[in-house]
Specification:
heterodimer, A: alpha+beta, 6-stranded mixed sheet, B: alpha+beta, 3 domains, 22 helices
Amino acid sequence: MMMDRNVVSAVLAEAQQIVLSLPEVDALCTRTARGAGYSWGISEECGQAMAWLASYGFDWAPVLLRRLSGERGGNVTPQPVAWTAEGPICALYCGSTLADFAALPEGPGKTGVARGQIHDPLLALPFVAQGAKKLGTAFDCYLNGTLWAHVAGQSVKCFKPELNTVALSRFELRPATQQSHSDQPSKANTTAVSMGDYEHLTKIALRMTVPATVASEARAGGTGSDNE
Amino acid sequence: MSCAPLSPVPEAARYRRSPDEVMRLDRLGVSHPTRLSFLRILLRRMQQEAWEFSRPVFDLDPRGVGRAVYSAKGPDRTYSLVAFGHELSPDMRSDRVIATAWDATFCLFDGVPADADLDRLAANVPFQEAGRVSSKELTLSRANKSVRLFEHVVEALSQGQQPDADTLSATGYLMRTTAVYGSGKFGAASHASISERPEVSAPFQAEMLTVWLIRTFTVDLVEHIARGIGGAKAVALDPALKRSLGVGNSTGLGMAPFLVRHPILLNNWMMVREEALARVRAQEKTGQAEIDGFLSALHAAQDNAQKWQSAHPIQVDRLADLRSGLAALASHVEAHWRPTGDHPWDALWTWGCTNLSDEAQEALLSLMLEPHGPLVDGLAECLQADESSAFSINGAISVKDTMDLISQNYSWALLPDYDAKDACARFWYVSEDKLEPRLGERFEEPGGALELPLDIGRRAAALWTALQAHLKDEPIAKLLLADPTQRSMVRLTQMTASRSYAEIRDNLISSDLLPIDMLRCKLAFFGATRFDPRSDRWVRISLFQNCPYPDTLAEEGGL
């Protein structure tokens, strides 16, 4: 809900950041993506994807906010080895399409896939993990030719964390040549988000809500007094 | 469901009811609690594991303002209800989600809270949605007094007398919760983060424990205030009267979409119930203990049906059906049922299907499960689900296979003409003020463009139409590439592929939709009794009525 700092607890009113549970991340990001105009299906996947990033400790909120307010990007055409598109594409679309095509000839399973420029590639990582899980394999992710991350179905290892916030980059997946890393830290159940980012996300989410009317308020409750 | 191959009654499969019969709203809307309801599962576990209970903090002033802690210690962990009593002016008392203050607020703490924890919680829990809890808390809740009854009980006890039993029975609870938030809400621990713990792995166990301990708090509170007024003259509530009290719950549309948004859980809950019924029907013979247990449950159900009151026209009719149905059942059992015959329970069920209303049939289901604990209680292990494992879409599934899935599980959805006004008269949305689900009138209110994807039938029909434009051997990934708006429905067809009880098989945006049917279904799984609609989308119920308290749990029979 949009936070009215006049009516929240003093602790929350003074907070600089808010600690969210993963279900809260999921619910908030689903609504935020929907509020930003994505279809319900992609919005649901955005919610799950951000919870996945949060569970592995990624600073997902600023990247998502940039994505939701930026260029949506063009359509992609999956093809074996190299996917084509008219210009850069959105990481949420690219990621979900990668996961959809994971087991198909156009997917990255056998030879990997190079996909030109994508916006906010961090947001594609959860979908790469989905694809890896479906195939029982792992992928190495490259940004502009630099090995960035190793992603398996249940783990992720980031070699260049400074690339996590890259806004636009050439993106490439290759089947991993080495075993998955076993030094994965345990997954988190919560994530800290700056109050500014949280309020920005909730503001976008409010676009998918409907203001109450006298009629809707009246219909939502019961008849009779609660003070009996 | 994964438990099916392990069934000790493999022949039960042929006694299972069809999803086309049980997943209709008019059938779900007459659901009754059973021994597999979540509160019964909790009570059984705590009794079997000999949990210990204590009240380490009870710091309330004579008005009932202050804090209290109730701890429940299991074999591996302790959970504590932290309760805050407040003074509330009558004009602030509302059961609606728009309320900002309550008579009491609560959370379930993971462990035994230290003073610093209590101070942190005191600064947040009374604010409810406008505060924050942490991963050390499992639930967040609040309750309002049932004012007239609460005052009557205080007055009687303070004068050294017992309250009037009929007055107590008419309401059935001293306080009613107006929300019990769990699983990660407002910063609380997510269910996934604690699902490895056996005691909370079944659905809503933390929520049920919260409400059960709140029940004790409500009685302690009323006795405490009575003592403050009456001093030495005051008496405690008579144990039999105390037992008859539950905790009320007042709830609205907020819980209805859960059943649609959690199809795997719904499937498991329904499958467990239907498998339990099928196992009982599949019994070739029965014993005297089972017959006695059934008769005892039938008498209790008849008594409950007499005490169950509602002024809502739909429920008035259903209660009449229930009372007459139970009476007919009792007569049949006494005069005609042959428990020594072949497959006696199936014979009884078959008689019920012919001679009882839907309402009484569902009551019969519950009664037939009651004496068969060893046969069905193990099914509780199958209620839970990791829904995330089925979330990802398999893009390799063909257009034809997707059409087959729709034919298999969504043929009901292809029947309505969704362009007809009546078939799309409603829309579900999220309210801006409280982010709560609401139901709007599409042709009378604004907001239809912001509709939630709960119009499953219409979406299935739209996907069916979209599929016609693609080659049958084409992977569904290509359709999704061309039309991303089909993603959520394609996902549903895949999630429900092997889960035939996953979907409510009715049009949820139809003009004749009764949301209370969805509420009753979910509340019955909780174990709710005395379902009392206050409109077509708002209801009061009772939990834990006639159940033991912490100090009597160990000696309770028949859990």
